[in-house]
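Hey all, sorry for the wall of text incoming. These are the two entities for the joint prediction.
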Amino acid sequence: MCDSASPNQFAQKLDSYIDSLTHKKENLIGVLHYAQEIYGYLPDNVQWHIAQRLDIPSATVYGVVSFYSFFTMIPRGEHVVNVCTGTACFVRGAEKLKEELENQLKIKAGETTPDNLFTLETLRCVGACGLAPVMIVDGEVHGRMHEAQDINEVLAKYRPES
Amino acid sequence: MKMCQKERFAHTSVYNIQNFELRHGVSTKEASPKEGKCHMKLKNTDALNELQAQSLKLLESRRAIDSVGTNNTQGLVRHVMVCGGPGCHSSGSPRIAERLEEELNKRGLSEQIKVFQPGCFGFCEKGPMIEIFPDNVTYCEVSEEDVTTIVEEHFVQGNLVEHLVFMDPNTKERFATNIPFYDGQLRIALRNVGYIAPENILEYIAADGYQALAKVLFTMKPFEVIDVLKQSGLRGRGGAGFPTGTKWEFTRKSEADQRYIICNADEGDPGAFMDRSVLEGDPHSVLEAMLIAGSAIGASEGFIYVRAEYPAAIHRLKIAIAQAREYGLLGKGILGSDFCFDIELKLGAGAFVCGEETALIHSIEGARGEPSVKPPFPAQKGLWGKPTCVNNVETLANIPPIILKGAEWFSAIGTEKSKGTKVFALAGKVNNVGLVEVPMGTTLRQIIFDIGGGIKQRKTFKAAQTGGPSGGCIPTKYLDSPIDYESLTAIGSMMGSGGLIVLDEDDCMVNIAKFFQEFTMDESCGRCTACRVGTKRLYEILTKITEGKATLEDLDNLEKLCHIIKDTALCGLGQSAPNPILSTLKYFREEYIAHVVDKTCPAGVCTHLLKYEITDKCVGCTLCVKKCPMHCITGTVKKRHVIDQERCLKCGACMDQCRVVGAIIRH
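and here's what came out:
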């Protein structure tokens, strides 16, 4: 597994990052953050590679990856659409917003559209409670998303012009 | 003891902060009042005082506030503060700041008027907000389009831009300053948030920054510092309310060659954003408090465990740490003393349970964030087996003023057992959503109706939810009880980290309990059975209730199971997970009964229990027939329509469409 990944440019970047660490095992989470940044997700072979480089069992790596919701083992779409499901958004209609997005994108939360354009996810509170309910596309917050029309307009901005 | 262990700091694991810096081109150049001058490490207290004296002019315009005016600048450079809090940032405040700078440049005013982006002003509802000094004028709900008007009217013509000035919705009175939202608030933890530019250490120093550290290092002994904290009555603001001084004392008294101090910035409570606001608006206050803690408990290393979901906070912390090192406020021989201390950032990875201190410690060690059995407490055996003190961000932010102003000053604020202030993130169905800091003992009514401006759309208050997934719902009858740690626990809720969500008549309490149960079920780490299986079973019973499939026996089982989990779960997450259910059962039992026995949802939220009916007021316009996704409404033009209850999805589309009041009813 390790060999198949090493010719890759990504793997070289990851390796040089790991090499720069004095304390390797303690920094597993930091290494995983870095790996996810360059690969976009954490597939099996990357986890294997990290386990070997840090000299820890791959089960430990998998254990950590599967524990934290920030890490994903499935590739995401080009744009990540997040619905805030914090309490403030919940009482101001986050459920409806999520359903509307599921309708418009024709996928369920946690899935990616077949054209690989959008991934729909939920997260807890971005601190923009005054704008509830909010959706976040690629880190950009869009507030007061009550109407289907508004949601459609936001999504349209991220669709390629056809 | 006071040895510098630099090796662990030789690297940084925080890769995306580095990326962030590259992307955003962070420069400390603007941090210096004299550009180009090489910063000196501060060698002693005199050097710090001298730097403070020099830096005071940075805040001069903001301090010279007398009355509202647009013409009298008292010969000072004007400061335009554009709120950079999470809410205002999301509604485009960075772009407003940029446009302001462009416009001022265009008109050749950029020398006389400077634009700043400080942290959260707190009044999120009316964001984006800007504040102009020394004019002492605040503008609300500013948009990009307003920028030209502000520059032309306010700065060039010297007129107040009336329509951007806050108007009280009830009295229609306008307030250019002293907005009623801030009445009754007392800012200690948030003292600098929204007031200083957080990316400039000199502004923090000008605002008495690092003076408390100097006092601790040169005039106090470690146990004196701990005594001051104990006398001040400061308690942990993360939720449980453990006395901070006692925690420090325990850590100090544990024999070891190394101790650690950790700042818990893993703010996972949905609906709470006060720690984030402190980190983004006043990062140095946290660093200074950690230094004070380090010297008091005998630690030379500190960690800030911050959520990866807070890139702006991470960015600001990184800048603050770099600046503190540059001025010799972190590193070896701080301010010429023999005290050595350094701070490293550690990123979380999206696990709510990591807010629990033992879980957080495991996460810093690079493992799964699962809690462990206490004792041993972290104060005895924590990070890498060494005594460790874990403090919350807001707790730490309170410490420098306590050291400077004394324990008596702090303990005079608040109630008998809860001293000082508490920051609440006020949200939900309240008019003025925002961040409020009030003395302990303030009543819910004052927070929700005076500061918060009452309930949205003149609806009726039903409950206030405090403490997030670990807290409970407080009904109307307790609106006038003073809030502190004890009173909230006594009425079945808890202080928690300070989320305060207001619920109105349209909220179903069973559904709210179910929402929190879903949260704790998802976030349960799975280590102990009580929490892993218990929260799932609770969620299933609540689902049955909201679907109208539950019996009274289920309700009994729900309550029994709540108590079992409370008694047997391993950590705070599990022990407090049943709180939202227990408190709603206590105060809103009739709603549960309505769901179980009458199969109705009084608030009209639980779709399975709703019934839509067309009354004889129907004029037969056929609008609903066309809109029904199930095609289950029958009827011809000008005749009363009928809904086929068997096939009805209860989506409410017909009711949304209907133009005749009372023709379609939901019950």
